[in-house]
Amino acid sequence: MDVNVTLAGFVGTTPRLFTSQNGTPFTSFRVASTKRYLDRSSNAWVDGKTIWFTVKAWRQPATNVAESVRKGDAVVVTGRLAVDEWTADDGPRTDLVVEATALGPDLTRGTARFAHTVARRDERATDAAAGEVGDPAPDVEDSAAEGEPEAEEARSDDAAYAMSA
Fold this sequence. Notes:
One of its GO terms (molecular function) is single-stranded DNA binding. InterPro entries: NA-bd_OB-fold, Primosome_PriB/ssb, ssDNA-bd. This protein is α+β, with helices and mostly antiparallel strands. The protein has a domain at 4-109: CATH 2.40.50.140. The chain contains 4 helices and 6 strands; from the N terminus they run E-E-E-E-H-E-E-H-H-H. It has helices at 60-68, 121-129, 140-145, 151-164, and strands spanning 4-11, 16-19, 25-39, 44-58, 74-88, 91-105. A 5-stranded mixed β-barrel has the order 1-3-4-6-5. The radius of gyration is 20 Å and the shape is globular.
């Protein structure tokens, strides 16, 4: 059974891009999430316990993370929770790992600009067959070829919807 989680926190280590033994790229970095609460007796915000997670992203998202995320960034991560256990010199250790299915900047703490990644059609087909999550959005030529509205039409539709909401 998969346990899916969403966490918000700050990137605590520089994301590092690796290649697995079978040639699959992946990125790994640590995120710290600290609970904050209002102490009503002092009417002040207080930091609670900090929980550290290792976040891993695979395939194209791994490259996107390595190029976009920096130590200190506020992020939101959604993915499958796993536990890594191993034995260190000082005894058994446990690490909480989130295998990211989606991640990005925490826009409650700042602003960002999004840029689509462009992958060749044959790469997307291979990734989709492998069950990759987080495939890049199709580029404009692909959208038009598949009967979807041109980018300008889509933007105007979104704007019209936003104004009517």
